Give the backbone structure.
Amino acid sequence: MKYKNNLMYFKEKTGLSFNKIGKAVGISQNYVQTYCKNDSNKSLIIVLRLAKLFNCRVEDLFELIEDEENENEN
């Protein structure tokens, strides 16, 4: 199953820098940049902190995309 990563949208919407986001959730700015890429594993605790920081749901940050194979099985 794939997902759409909306972290950059929320970063741009709030005007927060990678550094400020990192300080707010307890990770480095480089790690925040990694979180903005779809190819990294995400810590649940950090994702929950990001959702709290951006005042949104986890599902708003990362939207699941159903692939056709899974849709045909249901």
In short: The two ends are 14 Å apart (CA to CA). Strands lie at 2-5, 62-65. The mean pLDDT is 89.
